[in-house]
Amino acid sequence: MSDLVLVINAGSSSIKFSLFETTAADPQVLYKGQMEGLYVEPKFSAKDANDEKVANETLPADVPKNHDYALRHMLAWLQQRLGGRQIKVIGHRVVHGGTQYSKPERVTPELLAGLEALIPLAPLHEPHNIAPIKILQDLLPDAPQVTCFDTAFHTTQPELNQMFALPLDFAQKEGIRRYGFHGLSYEYIASVLPQIDTRAAEGRTVVAHLGNGSSMAGLLGGACQATTMGFTALEGLPMGTRCGSIDGGVLLHLMNHLKMDAKQIETLLYKESGLLGLSGISSDMRDLHASSDPRAKFATDYFARRVARETASLAAAIGGLDCLVFTAGIGENDDITRANVCHQLRWLGVELDEAANAVRSGEPRRISLADSKVAVYVIPTNEELMIARQALAAL
Ligand code: AMP
Q1: What pLDDT shows up at residue 25?
Q2: Together in a domain, 123 and 221
Q3: Residue 184, in any domain of the structure
Q4: In whole angstroms, what is the distance from residue 61 CA to residue 260 CA?
Q5: Could you tell me if the CB of 334 is within 6 A of ligand 1?
Q6: How many domains does one find in the chain?
Q7: At 138, is the secondary structure helix, strand, or coil?
Q8: Is the CB of 189 under 6 A from ligand 1?
Q9: Average confidence (pLDDT) per 10 residues, the chain, 395 residues
Q10: pLDDT at position 12, please?
Q11: Ligand 1 pocket member 290 (CB < 6 A)
Q12: Beta-strand (E) ranges in the chain?
């Protein structure tokens, strides 16, 4: 009989889950869903294997609105549908593995202590990743749990691309380096690339994970050499509401001259900047493309320019460019941004096939002309499947 794998991706205001069933090939989704709006107005929704909505409810006002209750509610909902079948393993997305964890890890008391020591590196995310592990130890004490790290894929980066130009001893001692994020997405893309394009899989590929959070990575033979996110998920590209790379001198100016405190600066950089801040309209690309306001176009052009510039920078780090892959919400769905980026990269040998780029599909597809020096693909990412695979492999 097939086994069940539960994947948990917990954030500050939501918990997402996917339940997979093992098959001879890749695990298949049975149910996926989420509890959103924690601490405000929690809403639970779920879909089945056919992508049909099978749950959609706002929790009653008198129940706790926290992670603990949300997880118990989800698990009870799932168990009603499983008819007594046991979950074989639980895989968790964990944002930060520091320099210690370069592969998935089985949860032990030592591992939990190790993760807690990493909280200062990701105070906004790591506690929310750790909490469900403890709750599930209580709810499903017999199910082994595995942590899958967003930073692990980037541990192959050479030191040259990991360090900031701070005093080296100080930075190494304090762990101040470019860890990089979205690693599970990159790992998934690297895992499917060999079936799509062997030259790209073995060669020099830049992957653009463009979503609400956006980053890019340069891969050589499938291993990460450089990435745009750094010490935190703030560096690199502008994002929905995050500013991306910014001159550290600006922060000194905000503190010393404008007398802004750390909390105010955090809100400015994480919540009020990026596409939202530039446009003054929305953090969502769809809204910006639909708007006739010139600031909307400025924001989308700014985003595409930064993606093009980072592609060239990553190409320098991997010694050229054989392939460019677009993935995540914007990368998979936004033909306008893809075209804008590709047109700016013609000098690098990117020749977009405009008709192929306009096709809407959930399948991996090539969008460059047959004679383009650089092959360009759209490949839907699947971080949950990557976690399910890693959790099973770690057993
Ligand atoms: P993600 O974080 O990967 O789920 O991506 C979310 C983002 O993808 C949204 O904020 C939108 O900006 C973008 N997106 C989703 N669908 C489309 C679309 N059809 N066209 C343009 N952008 C899209």
Answers
A1: 84
A2: no
A3: no
A4: 37
A5: yes
A6: 2
A7: helix
A8: no
A9: 92 93 90 94 95 94 92 94 92 96 97 96 92 94 97 97 98 96 98 98 98 97 98 97 98 98 97 98 97 98 98 98 98 98 98 97 97 98 97 94
A10: 84
A11: no
A12: 4-10, 15-21, 28-36, 43-48, 53-58, 87-94, 105-106, 145-149, 204-210, 214-220, 223-227, 323-327, 365-366, 375-378
- What residue owns the CA closest to ligand 1's atom 8? 329
- Please return the burial class of 212, using the count of CB atoms within 10 Å of its CB with bins 0-12, 13-18 and 19+: middle
**CA 331 to ligand 1 centroid distance, Å:** 8
The amino acid sitting at 82 is L
The pLDDT of residue 228: 98
Residue 1: per-residue pLDDT = 72
CB 337 within 8 A of CB 307: yes
Which residues on adjacent β-strands are paired with residue 374?
A: 350
Cα separation, 204 vs 187, whole angstroms: 15
Ligand 1 and 287: CB distance under 6 A: no
**Strand order, beta sheet including 204-210:** 223-227, 214-220, 204-210, 323-327, 375-378, 365-366
Instruction: Provide the residue range defining the domain that includes 312.
Output: 197-383
157 C-alpha to ligand 1 centroid (Å): 28
Position 283 in a domain:
yes
Q: Are residues 125 and 217 both part of a single domain?
A: no
What angle in degrees, to the nearest 10, is found between the helix axes of 126-139 and 67-82? 50
Strands 204-210 and 323-327: parallel
Tokens of 45: 């929704």
Strands (E), 37-115: 43-48, 53-58, 87-94, 105-106
Specify if 49 maps to a domain.
yes
Buried b (16+ CB within 10 A) or exposed e, 29-67: bbbbbbbbbbeeebbbebbbeeeeeeeeeebeeeeeeeb
150 in catalytic set: yes
Indicate which CATH number applies to the domain containing 225: 3.30.420.40
Please answer whether residues 153 and 187 qualify as being in contact, where contact means their C-beta atoms are separated by less than 8 angstroms: yes
